[in-house]
């Protein structure tokens, strides 16, 4: 695999693009910057603002197909970056679970390895529902042996995260918040998922 070209598609809402980050890196840019590939990897962030998991499920396959390669020397990878919009839009947890399950099952059928990043904390009033949603997503991923990054639990009471959110009215993190998300991704099986040695990620 080390000789293969790696193409990573990140599908999700605006949090996947780092909205609110003054450095415009978000967590995806920080993670890739700390990942050392034998050949330069291609990262495509395919985000739609305000998107629910239902909307994501309807579009991800066609959008990633245009970026993925069919050559046997190309390694296609899918990162599902789940946001909080299912809560705001009133989707049931059961529907959210089914949406993620369908995405992961199609990816598996296409022989595309998947990695899931769960929704981070947002408005305090939505905290319990986001926590429930994150737990449900984690269960779906676990049943399919897909790596899942719980960003909610470690950040719900994290001072830096809360300070970042406070500056944006409780919606988007800033540099510190995206750095925390990147740290969680890097320490939750990212390198193993890519078949790469674990670097020293402080």
Automatic annotation (TrEMBL):
Signal peptide: none annotated. It comes from the Bacteria. Pfam families: Lipase_GDSL_2 (PF13472). Transmembrane segments: none annotated. Coiled coil: none annotated. Residues 10-179 form the SGNH hydrolase-type esterase domain. This is Lysophospholipase L1-like esterase.
């Amino acid at each position: 695999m080390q000789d293969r070209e790696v193409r990573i598609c990140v599908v999700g809402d605006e949090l996947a693009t780092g909205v609110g980050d003054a450095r415009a890196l978000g967590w995806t840019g920080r993670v890739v910057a700390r990942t050392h590939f034998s050949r330069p990897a291609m990262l495509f962030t395919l985000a739609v603002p305000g998107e629910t998991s239902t909307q994501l499920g309807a579009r991800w396959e066609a959008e990633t197909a245009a970026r993925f390669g069919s050559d046997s020397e190309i390694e296609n990878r899918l990162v599902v970056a789940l946001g909080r919009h299912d809560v705001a839009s009133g989707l049931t947890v059961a529907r959210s679970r089914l949406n993620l399950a369908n995405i992961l099952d199609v990816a598996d059928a296409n022989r595309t390895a998947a990695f899931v990043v769960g929704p981070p904390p947002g408005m305090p009033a939505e905290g319990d529902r986001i926590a429930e949603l994150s737990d449900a997503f984690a269960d779906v991923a676990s049943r399919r042996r897909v790596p899942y990054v719980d960003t909610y639990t470690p950040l719900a009471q994290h001072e830096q995260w809360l300070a970042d959110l406070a500056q944006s009215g409780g919606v988007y993190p800033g540099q510190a918040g995206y750095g925390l998300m990147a740290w969680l991704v890097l320490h939750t099986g990212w390198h193993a998922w890519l078949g790469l040695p674990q670097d020293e990620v402080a």
